[in-house]
Amino acid sequence: MTEATPQAAAVLAVDVGASKLAAAIVGADGSFARRREVPTPAAGGAGDVARALTRLIHEVAGPAGAAAACGVASAGPVDVAAGTVSPVNIPAWRDYPLLDLVRVAAGVPAVLGGDGVCAALGEHWLGAGRGVRSMLGMVVSTGVGGGLVLDGRPYPGPTGNAGHIGHTVVDLDGEACPCGSRGCVETIASGPSMVRWALSMGWRPPVPADGRALATAARAGDPTALRAYERGARALAAAVVSAAALADVDLAVVGGGVAEAGQVLFGPMRKALDEFGGPSFVRRLRIEPAVLGRDASLAGAAYLALTVDGRISREE
Ligand SMILES: [Zn+2]
Question: Measured in angstroms, how far is the CA atom of residue 111 from the centroid of ligand 1?
Answer without folding.
Answer: 27
